[in-house]
Amino acid sequence: MASEYITEGWLREKFGLGWGTEVHLPLDSRLTPAAHQLLEERKIVIKYIDAEGRVFNPDKSGEEAPVQVHPLTSSTGGQKAECLLCHQPVAKKPEALTHLDANTMVVKNHPRIALRGKIDTLIAHTVLVQIEFDRENKFPWLHPYLADVRSYLGNLLKSEVSGETMIPIALGGADENVVHAVSHNPLKYLGHDHIVPEMSHGRNVALLNLLRAQVREAEVEAARVFIAPDLTVTRPDLIQAANRLSSALYVLMLLTLLAEQGKQITLEKVVLER
């Protein structure tokens, strides 16, 4: 794709393009007007990647070269961190400490660091599932949804680190409300009732169910971190994000089971028929 124009069709083939997700494009690529409009309408974040794996943000004015940023935080420069306990600058990071954010260091068994470990594991398993899912490529319309899941997990980790409010989940053209409705009443929207995972559903459904269960673990970890004993919730957006992500994966399980039965149903079709 280097030095070529990226079209709307190419984007739809490679990505789910859920609202607020993120796409990675070759550094020297260009967008056609239709592709640019699609990304703008869905508030999709563009990151450019060069041959050495460096990450760049586009210049919004279109007049300057893209700016190299940190792959996770999108920051353009480093800041000196201080210890959370003594508030003294940390000149050299001890092995027992890690960054809570750009300015603060904590011990590695800090609850928020444990949560990040769960999310990190989820991202790793999601990438593996993307590789292993539908290896014969019989259901190409389902792969972009997994790309949205991977993007959403990246946003989840970034939101936890930065403190930015987490955006609602979206799969393709289906927003959070559609995902939630389908997960609660699949018989109405997909023509198939709720399922309890079993071996007869096959490898693809099992892979998605493993991810769904791991998201549940992350949700419990988030609740442990952000719900105080007096039931004060400091990050309801993150807890809801994990809850909705497990719903999204359950919906993908149902869509995959139906695909295995020869039925091509997309969430975009559900949106049109609601």
Structure description:
- With 274 residues, the protein is α/β, with parallel strands linked by helices.
- The chain has 3 domains: 5-69, no CATH class; 79-107, no CATH class; 110-273, Cobalamin adenosyltransferase-like (Hypothetical Protein Ta1238, Chain: A), CATH 1.20.1200.10.
- The chain contains 9 helices and 9 strands.
- It has helices at residues 8-14, 33-41, 111-132, 143-162, 176-184, 186-190, 203-226, 236-260, 267-273; strands at 5-6, 22-26, 30-31, 45-49, 55-57, 67-69, 82-83, 97-99, 104-107.
- The strands form 3 sheets. The protein has a 4-stranded mixed beta sheet. Strands 7-9-8 form a 3-stranded mixed beta sheet, with no helix packed on it. A two-stranded parallel sheet has the order 1-3.
- Helix 4 (143-162) packs antiparallel against helix 8.
- The longest helix is centred in the last third of the chain and has 25 residues, at 236-260.
- The protein is globular.
- The chain starts with a strand and ends with a helix.
- The relative contact order is 0.12.
- The model has no long low-confidence stretch (mean pLDDT 88).
